Amino acid sequence: MNDRDILKLYREGGREEAFRLLVQTYKERLYWHIRRMVLDHDDTDDCLQNTFVKAWQSLDRFRGDAQLYTWLYRIATNESITFLTRQQTRGEYADLEAARRLSTDPWFDGDQLQMALHKAIAKLPPKQKAVFNLRYFDEMPYEQISRVLDTSEGALKASYHHAYEKVKAWVKEEIDEKY
Amino acid sequence: MRMNEQNDILERARQAGQPFKTPEGYFDALEDRLMARISVEASKPAPTRRQRIWMAFKPALALAATFALIFGMGYGVLSLTHTLDGRKAADATAGYASAEEELIRHSSVINYYQTDDPAEAEEEIDEDTLIDFLTSEMSFSDLAEIYAQSF
After folding, report:
1. DSSP letters of A56-124?
2. Under 8 Å between Cβ of A118 and B19
3. Dihedrals φ, ψ of A122, to 5°?
């Protein structure tokens, strides 16, 4: 069932069934997107639930001219950025702390290179981290990222290029220090 | 895959796969947990009109209060600074006034004839007597000297 069918079902009164279909279709993609942003599984679960609750509350106001996929990514990205920003405002720098905790996280079994990669990504500012992740992991076209983040394609390309170079340098630094 | 990408450390990291895991059955249980949360949220009483208005205006009010506080503090500091400057100006004016009085006292023609005897000082001299005295008793050079001393 595609986005159009889900929306049709929702508008014809099958609200709960349509919403369940929406969750089934997008839960994994959105989970991994949020997880790469906030790193910790429990924090990811909170952000993902908030994303779907917000989607449920405003699905009747959803305009058909945007894709559900883009709309949900936008809500999920905003939830993740808000979560990270709130932590930074509290002075906890929990994103960096979460990156340090990866080595003891039971839900992370990456090698040294993957560990170094996620520690490096955690150093990026929240919005640039979203740009980097959407392009690098999800291989989302700039045109779609532009709709998710409401930013021009030119600015996104520049942001991704800078993020890529920074992350590469930090990963190399981390790997060279250890080996 | 292009050679550059194969050599790139970030490309190697990407090809290493997904390093994150989830607790078993997490995705299967997610829908039911979500629906349970949504029904809890739906059972909460909806905010009243007054609460909604308050929630909508709260950020604007907070901003306005901040501006008012900054303005109040600025006004207080400026008022304090002005009061101090005013006092300094008043002191300075008083200083000028006394200096002027002092100069007048020293340069006054009347002071030239000042006497220590208060009775004599209070004695009035009429205008004709004064002119008579000045024309008969004082030379031109004396008058010029008195005039020069008065400035």
Report:
1. HHHGGG--TTS-HHHHHHHHHHHHHHHHHHHHHHTT--HHHHHHHHGGG-TTB---HHHHHHHHHHHTS
2. yes
3. -65, -20
Alpha-carbon distance A138 to A58, whole Å? Answer: 25
Inter-chain touch B18–A16, beta carbons under 8 Å: no
pTM for this structure? 0.66
> What is the least distance, in Å, from the CA of A82 to any CA of chain B?
17
Of A53, A110, A136, the CB nearest to B38: A53
Contact yes or no for A149/A156 (Cβ under 8 A): yes
Q: Does domain A3-178 have CATH number 3.30.70.870?
A: no
The rounded distance, in Å, linking the Cα atoms of B16 and B78 is 65
Q: Number of Cβ pairs closer than 8 Å across A and B?
A: 72
The Cα of B13 is separated from the nearest Cα of chain A by a number of Å equal to 6
Rounded-to-integer distance, Cα A137 and Cα A73, Å: 14
Q: What is the pLDDT along chain B (151 residues), one digit of tens a residue?
A: 444 554 688 888 888 888 999 999 999 999 999 999 888 887 776 666 666 667 777 777 788 888 888 888 888 888 877 766 666 666 665 655 665 665 555 554 444 445 455 555 555 667 777 777 777 777 777 777 777 776 5
The complex scores an ipTM of: 0.84
Interchain pair B20, A167: CB under 8 A: no
Q: Which amino acid is at B76?
A: G
Give how far the C-alpha of residue B104 lies from the chain's centroid of Cα atoms, to the nearest Å: 40
SS3 B44: coil
Cα atoms in the 13 Å half-sphere on the side-chain side of A49:
18
Question: B136 at the A interface (CB within 8 A)?
Answer: no
**Which of A101, A108, A113 is best to mutate for the B interface (most B CBs within 10 A)?**
A113
